[in-house]
Amino acid sequence: MSQATPPVRSSLFVILLCFLTLVADGYDLIVYGTTVPHLLNEPGWHLSPAGAGMIGSWTLVGLMVGLAAAGPLTDSIGRRRLLMAGVLWFSVGSIVCALATSPTFLGAARFVTGIGMGGVVPSAVALSVEYAPKSRRQLYNALTLTGYSVGGIVSALLAIALLHEHGWRTLYALGAFYALILPVMYFFLPESVDFLVDRGRLDEARKLATRYSLDFDQILRDKHAQRAPLDGVRAKSGYQLVLSREFRATALLLAFMTFCVQLIIYGLNAWLPQLMRSAGYPLGSSLQFLLVMQLGAVVGMLGGAWLADRLGSRHVMLPFLVIGGLSLIALSQKLDFAWLMLAVFGAGLGSIGTSSLIYGYIAAHFPAACRGSALGGAQAIGRFGSILGPMIGGWIVGSNLGLHWNFYAFAIPAVIAATIVPLIPKAQ
């Protein structure tokens, strides 16, 4: 009797699970920015703007730790295990944040939660690219990374609906529902075919490739082509391969670009509602600005990916960064409401949209043996920018430099990142 052939599944099913993981990730990262105005007024906490910025930065320190550790882990133990561990980690961490009794407690809880959040991004991006058709890698990567902005949209909508009546703790407690995705992931999320091939588990890899309609012979040919010019370094993997002569310069340039972009993203995520309140807008309108920024990010991710698959990521990153920088400069001016919303939209498109392009470029440029490490390492170094972003925002708000500098501080990194783009080599 012949063995029954397992039913064929679409690779979009893998993308959906990775997307849902990053929805949770985006919600947890952006929820802090929606709660800052209430945290500043929490009875007995006496939290200053600089202190609130420090809590936001501690979250990102944890994220950096998680990213640095997750890169080599996803290359050594696999994408699937690390994704599930990360989801469980920050589900529990969200409950702990809801129980915080002081700024120190909340800062520590956000730091620990950030470790789990950092653990999922390299695995999700690597898995998405590895299950994507070669001509749609940027698009599939963008579909996954839109989960981050969708999570931010959910966070902003829930804050508008619940924050005033139910308080900031409710928004963190809702993060416990992240864990509901774990049973689905356990039974249905496959391991990376590329990872299995690198580990010599060819029979298992072939079965998965057949089930998800991947060209297994082409995967093997690509592996052989990657090894051919680099026989001297191919025995290396993880960070050793990333820092080899072949990839070192590219990795450092991309890491510095990530630094600039992350400074913008996390500075705005933490402080945009408060900055707009300082400009005279009520809290409800300020949360709407955060929502519009996430909508701009979704358009930037999907539209940028569509263009990148046709023109190349380098040709799309530069105009996106210019749009982001000009939008931030425009926000420093007194604009009509429609133009103001357009500028906020452009800030999301140029910052978060560009970050998606960077991650997709890394995943396409580096081989599977170090893909997770390249993603995790570049993002971990880039997280220094995400740590500085909330701190800079808190310092500017507390120093009364004026509305203009609230946005100039985030426009400058966009200009710097744009100057780096021409120096990045073309993806292989």
Low-confidence stretches: none
Radius of gyration (CA) equals 21 Å
CATH class: Mainly Alpha
CATH fold call: Growth Hormone, Chain: A
Helix percent band: over 70%
What keyword list fits this structure?
single chain, 428 residues, mainly alpha, Growth Hormone, Chain: A, 17 helices, 79% helix, globular, membrane
Question: What is shown here, in short?
Answer:
Keywords: Membrane, Transmembrane, Transmembrane helix. The chain has 17 helices and no strands. With 428 residues, the protein is mainly alpha-helical.
Q: Could you explain how this protein is built, in words?
A:
With 428 residues, the chain is mainly α. The chain has a single domain (11-423), classed as Up-down Bundle (Growth Hormone, Chain: A), CATH 1.20.1250. 79% of the residues lie in helices and 0% in strands. The protein contains 17 helices and no strands. Helix 4 (103-130) runs antiparallel to helix 5 (137-166). The longest helix is centred in the last third of the chain and has 32 residues, at 368-399. It is globular and about 60 Å long.
Secondary structure topology:
Blueprint: H1 11-40, H2 49-76, H3 79-98, H4 103-130, H5 137-166, H6 168-173, H7 182-188, H8 193-198, H9 202-211, H10 216-227, H11 238-242, H12 248-278, H13 283-311, H14 313-331, H15 337-365, H16 368-399, H17 403-420
Helix pairs in contact: 1-2, 1-3, 1-4, 1-5, 1-12, 2-3, 2-4, 2-16, 3-4, 4-5, 4-16, 5-13, 5-15, 12-13, 12-15, 12-16, 12-17, 13-14, 13-15, 14-15, 14-17, 15-16, 16-17
Transmembrane segments: 50-70, 82-101, 107-127, 139-164, 170-189, 249-268, 288-308, 315-331, 337-362, 374-397, 403-424
Domain Major facilitator superfamily (MFS) profile: 14-428
InterPro entries: MFS, MFS_dom, MFS_trans_sf, Sugar_transporter_CS
